[in-house]
Amino acid sequence: MNIRHLLSASDLDRRDATAVLDTATEMAAMAGREVKKLPTLRGKTVVNLFYEDSTRTRISFEAAAKRLSADVINFSAKGSSVSKGESLKDTALTLQAMGADAVVIRHPASGAPHRLAHWIDGTVLNAGDGTHEHPTQALLDAYTMRSRHGRIEGLKVAIVGDVLHSRVARSNVHLLHTLGAHVTLVAPPTLIPVGVTGWPADVGYDLDAVLPGVDVVMMLRVQRERMTDSFFPSEREYARRYGLDADRVRALPSHAIVMHPGPMNRGMEIAPEVADSARSTIVEQVANGVSVRMAVLYLMLGGVK
Amino acid sequence: MAYREAVQPKIIITGADLTRIVDRIAHQILEKTDGARDTILLGVPTRGVPVAHRLAARIRAFEGVEVPVGTLDITLYRDDLRLRGARALGPTDLPPGGIDGRRVILVDDVLFSGRTIRAALDALADLGRPRIVQLAVLVDRGHRELPIRADYVGKNIPTAIDESVRVMLTETDGTDEVRITGKDSA
Amino acid sequence: MNSYLIKGVRVVDGEPTDLLLRDGIVAETGRGLSAKGAEVVDADGLVALPGLVDLHTHLREPGREDAETVDSGSRAAALGGYTAVCAMANTSPVADTAGVVEQVWRLGREAGLVDVQPIGAVTVGLAGERLAELGAMADSAARVRIFSDDGNCVADPRLMRRALEYVKGFDGVIAQHAEEPRLTEGAQMHEGIESARLGLPGWPAVAEEAIIARDVLLAEHVGARLHVCHVSAAGSVEILRWAKRRERLTGRPSKVTAEVTPHHLLLTDDRASGYDPVFKVNPPLRTAEDVAALRAGLVEGVIDAVATDHAPHAVQDKECEWGYARPGMLGLETALSIVVEALLGDLGWDGIAERMSRTPARIAGLADHGHNPAKGRPANLTLIDPSATWTVEPTALASRSRNTPYAGFTLPAKVVATFLHGQPTVLDGKVLR
């Protein structure tokens, strides 16, 4: 791969994205071995710089880096706000001085990884920035779709829920488009960005009209607090119009899968029996996360001097 | 063989030679392994894999013995990633039963610096504990950088360090032959 | 006081002439002037404009002297060709009392590089709840005539109506920062395709347009003056066009004026792509269609003036995450060049003088400013080299801050000299203090 940082899923062209998925397949094969460790990134330092709690993503990156024998430093910066604590720039200079080869950053502000990339020489991997993007989540979602359906080209994917505030949706729209899938966004109009016209995706407001034609339905987490800001009237109304329950699952084609990036609001955007059903890939997605992140770390750091 | 100033690619092993070489290695393996008992062949991608399959086929033809064949991708164990960049991974497929306690013969096309085999030994150690590990190569061109030698060698070809030896196989390249190319025309 | 003889300068779009500056006024004009003891300024090839007047400057003093002071801001202004700036009220403490506006006014006099005309806050502490002592500020030594809560909108319609009415008593004007606050909570950039892509909360143009429409109607209802700050959206231009046409129909003179910033005449929202907060500003950079409408509005006279909204910020307030950065850009030293770059062909030098000097001086009530250099007029003027180009280097700017969005831009037209009350503040492109 010729890219230095992974800040947005749109940084990946089709060849790069496919290389990540292919490499992840081989990485997944190693997960079954007795010795899970590979010497590939021996001597490299990977810093997990997390300004938000996300145990799931942090552990996934940590496991991926450790399986490739990189040294992992966890830098939990949560609680350091603008007014108190060290600025992102000062932290960047510290990491630079430590000789970090890669920084995996999770941050509540959109674009923070771009700023970091501006200040350090190492590779920056965006592990979720504000309401912007979460490219490795999109890669693991694509990996999961490919392993269930055998392909991505031509798949019809519905992404349902709080598109406006979702970094997962943004990254998935870019990546799935790059890989030749067809995306339909489904949400109440309040939760679709005004500028969605610039996205390579269709928009629908009626979930029931979309479901019978999809190969994949990806449910996004909807925070209950959105209700207080009048994005929708009540949890009940949201669940009734946009929640994926057993009845709606029956409307899906028999081969269609149900995805969710987690953490789920059971009973809100997804019914418990749907989350736990055989169509659900939610547990797989977590497992695939490590393989995909190993692939990204290998491809981005393996060849860097 | 004398030092060559090869500018044009030169065919040093023909298809017919190659067939004889594979036959000879197959015989040697049978001899040295008590009829290939408890032995598996692991090809190192790319061209070690078809060579391993050919050896297995010849062994079957000579003695009716079925030798399991697998592949061992060593990319993630290479020590030259920094110099050559991350590259696509090949598959690693071990035969059923794995490698523990068995005789593993690594198969590659060319033995040069020995670094590939060093990486393969590391990879093997992470996959299990063979009773014995041996190495079979079609061509040994010298210039070792590590204390590694092959147990089965098809042909020793003295070369200059800047020459390149290219093994071509029907399975991967559409033809069977070995070429040597001087640096200038590489 | 020295007198100065400026040789061979073209006054605005006129033919080359000489100007003798003496005792604070233009004493003589005409070709081949000579004057004993006068310092001669060779102005061959230069253009003389009336000293520029900025309706919208943040000098940050008192309170944020790490970002700018009255003195450093005055230096930047003089280098930009300005002879008067109106200092916004959102200082700390807020300029909402006679005491604070007099302090700023006095600091301006001490710096002595431009006439600093303080703007008073409309409401106490810019809180938008009750009127500040507008009359006391008007009667103070600073003689405040423009009142603004800039940074905040006077959002309460009832309070806005009262403010518009009240300042009629001393020919004041309310300069409104038009931003419906409920529509821009958490907003980071123009709401559109770019904000959707970048995942930054959007600042919809309607938040500006709705307030302008409301205020135009309120001002007309109470017969008051209204000045609209930093118009940024095409829809706002359309509303202002409607407002001015409407006043022509009613036969009453237009009492609505509006300003646009240089950055809104040149830059678009795609500058946010790298999340560099130097491009974060309020109101935000918008689309190419908005830029085109603003330019057309300025040329047409729907928008009356160019104002810089010069907003210095300390390094730590800009070298951070976009969402945490403070909005605002430097403007004083680049304004003229940006307007030349964008609109010299449409406006000519006279059109630029009108929109950057004469009209803003009239809006601000600054009688000594905004006059083309002519015999008997106050000698507040600036000399421009129209054929020079220069490259913006943030560290070379006179402002204490570095947050120019034009770093590395090569721009046309250079200020060579500026005269305030007949005395140079800038000569040979260098500030004289």
Describe this structure in words.
The complex is a heterotrimer of chains A (305), B (186) and C (433). Chain A is of the alpha/beta class and 305 residues long. Helix content of chain A is 40%, strand content 15%. Chain A has 12 helices and 9 strands. Chain A has helices at 14-30, 55-67, 88-98, 112-119, 135-149, 167-178, 207-210, 225-228, 235-242, 246-251, 272-275, 282-301, and strands at 45-50, 71-76, 102-107, 123-129, 156-160, 182-186, 202-204, 216-219, 257-259. In chain A, helix 4 links the parallel strand 3 and strand 4. Chain A is globular and about 55 Å long. Chain B is of the alpha/beta class and 186 residues long. Chain B has a single domain (16-160), classed as Rossmann fold (3-Layer(aba) Sandwich). Chain C has helices at residues 70-79, 98-111, 134-139, 157-166, 193-198, 205-222, 234-250, 262-266, 288-300, 335-364; strands at 4-11, 16-22, 25-30, 39-42, 47-50, 52-57, 82-87, 115-118, 146-147, 173-176, 189-190, 202-203, 226-228, 256-260, 305-306, 381-391, 410-420, 423-427, 430-431. Chains in contact: A-B, A-C. The interface between A and C is medium-sized, with 27 and 24 residues.
